[in-house]
Amino acid sequence: MDHGLRCWKCGASLADYTLPIRRLEECRACRAELHACRLCRFYDTSKAKHCAEPVAEEVKDKASANFCDYFSPTPDAYRPEALSAADRARAELEALFGRK
Hints:
Elements: H1 85-97
């Protein structure tokens, strides 16, 4: 079932992943953790704590798996223009050599 989700980090399709995304699910292409703020529809850097959900507890590491009950994956999470040059280089190296 194609739900249109793409990895927030590398843009790989997550069409073959079952919803809901499990807490420790990783992208098969770049090994990014998927149950993370960066893949959530509430992730918004213009908001306090970078979250548009007003009652959600703050999550410090937006790129790591978390226990947020409000997590809702969005197909709009992959934004390559939002990645810094360092983040892009790191993602390319991790894709090439694998994550430790």
